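Entry 14. Ran structure prediction on the chain below.
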Amino acid sequence: MSKLSIDLPQITETQRHFHPENYILDENLQGAVSVAIALNQPLLITGEPGTGKTRLAHKIAWDLSQSHPEFTSEPLIFNTKTTSVAQDMFYIYDALRHFHDANIKKNQMAEAPPTSDYIELRAFGKALALSNPEELQKGRFIQENMSKSSVVLIDEIDKAPRDFPNDILNEIENMEFEIKEAGNYKIKKGPDHRIVVIMTSNSEKNLPEPFLRRCVFYHIPFPEKEQLLQIVESQLGERNDYADEKLIEHFEMIRSVIKKKKPATAELLAWLRILELHHFLDDSVNFNLLNSRQKKVLKMSYSVLAKDKNDLKNIETNFLK
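Output, structure tokens:
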């Protein structure tokens, strides 16, 4: 029986950490970010999966923290789900645990625990509380020593039920929310701090008009060859042999023959790291005259780029003759 041959130390070589300072922010995208911040409106970002929508929030948080130290260096993130409701973006209340603990205290003839012990602020709620020194002094729902400005990322908002975007309009416009389980206790943004809201979506079609009217919108197009090379150089290193125009051109040709889910920049980087791991460029590369080792490496690596059996077969037919 054959066994898997995997070198675990090598696997770790492919895990390159994302550094927000290396994110390529082109002029148009930078303009959209500036407009959203100036107007104090949410920035809605669409684009193909893997084009850097989510990482943009990390870039903005990092850059703002460098020029404005009152900003946190990482975004507060809310990952939208198909079951999400508006409240989830601000706080969650553990009613079951509260009920359980209250019964224990009752049996012990002791005072019931306060509701605030069972409320956890989520991304947007935490950002509002962090911006308000009065909330920090009260310490009811958050334990922090210093008030801060924040970037809030609401990721893949199109996943939520259709009513979700409209249900958060008032809170986003007024920068406040209420905790109904705590007697409608209100938390609002402090006057001396900013909250920058970034929302991502794979499609703006499912979002309601009233919501879209209140956003600054930008669609991240798929990068041209020159920008792809810049992205690769920023992530792999400018002197890395795999930041190579020939490989970028081959990737673009692969995208042109894929019919379903076209690979994006995230897949490009993963593909190049696999090629690097298997020393693909150790031999001189001519994609029209590949040797047997190069064909073997490419065939294995194409599984990173194709997400459908027909697309995978199409790639192999076109490029592994």
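The radius of gyration is 24 Å. Will compare against last week's run tomorrow.
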